[in-house]
Each structure stands twice: as C-alpha cells, then as structure tokens.
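Cross-check.
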Amino acid sequence: MIKKKFDLFVIGGGSGGVRAARVAASKGMKVGLAEGWDLGGTCVNRGCVPKKLYSYSSHFSDDFNLMNSFGWKISMPKFSWRKLVDNKKREIKRLNSIYKNLLVNSGVEIFNDFACFEDKQTLKVGKNLINSKSFLVAVGTKPRKLSFEASNQIITSDEAFDLKKLPKKILILGGGYIAVEFASIFNGLGVDVTICVRGNKILKGFDDDVIKNLSIQMEEKGIKFITGLFPKDIVLKNKKFNVNFGKKKIENFDLVMEALGREPNVKSLNLKLARIKTSENGSIIVNRFFKTSNKNVYAIGDVIDRVQLTPVAIAEAMYIVDNIFKKTKKHFNYENIPTAVFSNPNFACVGLTEKEARKKFKKIHIFTSFFKPLRYSLSKLNEKVYIKLIVNSLNDRIVGLHYLGENAAEIIQGFAVAVVKGLKKSDLDETIGIHPTSAEEIVTMKSKN
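Predicted model, tokenized:
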C-alpha cells in the first residue's frame, strides 16, 4: 500500500466536493480528492444538467404547435431519442473534463477510485492509505429502490437518461420533483405517462394552490394520476410490466420508473470504523459548522440531508473551507433558498408556503394572479400562469413568492435576491412593470385574498 498525507482530503467529486477541494488548494493547502465515478457528481452526470437538457427537448412539441398560430407552416417534425442521448453524452463528457481541469489546475491530486475508512484517521482509496488533518465527506445520495418481483428491470433516474429507446407507455412511482419532471419530459416526447403516488397530491411540501394548478395543467397535457393507491407487486411478463394495485386492479406498462426519493450514498464508506454517527435515514449527522462526531471529519451536501440542492452544496463548501482554514465560526442560513421544478409548465418559488406562513405569523395577506400569457393568446394551447405572493401584514415583508409558468426559475432567481434582503409589498407597488410580460404581474397585484 502507498501511504500519503494531506491537509484536506475530499471524498466525492460532486459540485460541493470539487468546490471545497479546489478553493482549499488555491489557499496553499495540500488537497486530495477521491471519486470512483465521474467528476461532477449526480448533478452533472445523472441529475440537474441532463434533466434540464431533456426538459428543453420535451417543450419543443408545444412550440411546434404554437408556431402555427403565429403564421408559420411547418412539416411534421420528427424526434430522435438516440440523437438527444448522444448529444447529451457529449456535453456531459465536456463538463467532466472541465471539472477535472479545475481540480488539476488548482493543484488537487485526484484519485479515480472509491474511498472507505480503515479507522477514524485513515482512509483507503484503491492501493493508497490516506492520512489527512481533515476529511470532507461529500458523497451525495442515490435513488431509493423498493422490492418488487421485477425490481431488476425497473429503472430509476440514473438509467432514464440512457434508455435504448423511448417506451410507449410508462408508470412513474412517486410524486416528488424528480417524478414530476420526468413525467413532463416523457409526456413532451410523446410517451403515455402515468404518475402513481401513495397520497392525494404531488410535490408534498410545496404550496397547495400552486400544486393544484400544476396538476390540472399536467392533466390537460395528457399526464394521468393514480392517487391513494400503490403497487402491491410488479411483474415483468411478455415484455410488459404487470402492475398489481390490489382490489383486482392490474394495469400494463412498457416501462416502470421509481422516483421515490433518494438515500445517502454511504454504504461502502465504513463510517462506523471512523466513528461517524448517522441518523435513522442514513444521513451523516453534523453540527452547525458541518463537523461530524469525528472531530477531524466534516460533511456537506445531500449526504447531510438538510437542503438537497447543488447550489446549497457549493455554498456549504465555501463555509467549510473558511471554518477549517480561517478558523471562523460561520454557520449556514437555510432560509429563503429559491428552488425550481422543471415541470411543464415550470414552477419556482422562494420563501414560505401559505401553510408555513400562517403557522409562523399572526396575520398574512395573500395576493394571486391567474392568466393566459400573451405567448399563448393566439393558440389553442391552454397553459396558464399562476402567481402567489405571501406577505407578513405586520411589517409588509414578502415571505413567499411562487410562480407557475414559462421561465419561472429565471424570474424567481431575480426576485429571490430582493426577498432575501427584505423586499416589501410596497416596494413592488412602487416598481413599474415591463409591458407586456408575464413577470410584470408580480409588481401589479393589488387585490388581497
């Protein structure tokens, strides 16, 4: 075995791990990083980036229909799934190379292998034994799988990007953002899509009114919902998935996809040998400064199960570097983190839901707007924009902003800066809108609910 020593050794080459490694190295620290898969982590390889690319592709079916209403006559477009997959792979390979160059140019030593602890101060990576003043665990999560007879043939989001061919009919288990986004992607690419959730609605934890409107519009686009039921078993027979929902309800699908949440990717790390404590769901327990129960080991990103978003992991990485090497005592603020669901239509928000706001404040005001945007006014497409503004009536501060409609994420990103800095409803009232746009509705809403 080869013995090596570092000031900081990072386990996991996702966005958070890479940022921590290269920033620490740029400050003169000796840094190593282990990644047994591809650099960039889930986001770049099997998450945010390919998902957004596929989401763009899925919207063109509506765009072609829209073109006719604006006077453009086009022949029937033809979609190639194979070309989309190949182009995606080429782009991901380019991004992998960028991540590698960022690390190498910063002086980080990269180990292309998985890591596991030998004891609380030693890490094994391939044929190397690593000792480090500090370790950082940033291994992320992996899709959660249930047990069915056909489990080996049921896909997750990891496999969905590289299918050999599109199914004609798919069942998606789960109602979180991954399930909803893939439902919109497959639907836009011409697949017959059904979402199945145990409860009575999708996107638990988001604002009820927004999700109600999103669900209606998804149904209008042809996506079907099965609520309050869940498969008893799934069997593959004659190249079809026979899904038994109980009560003699059996349906057949060409493909089944599980999107039932994610679990910490820690099974092979030997955390017990490092004396690192985990929670019931397997996530690593950290204090306010991302330190684990082992004083020399820190953890950030999805594996600590706080807010599972790539920009959050990157921001946490910056805090961890400062706290380790500048000896600061900064702790991360998880309030007012904007987020988006790249469904069709898009949805984005910042701040509290109405239910959360009513629990937190004595009195709130709700402002809403619901309309057909100008872009669709000449067509038969029935897509609508829904905006919901939640205000703390005691100080006029905006505590929640929710936007359902095209370019939702782009719009909310700008407003999120203002909300974080204490934006008031009166500030919106004093702002002139850009006409005609959908976003101008945010600064013109007058009636309270």
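The first strand starts at residue 2 and ends at 11. The chain has three domains: 2-143+263-325, 151-260, 339-443. Passed to J.P. for a second look.
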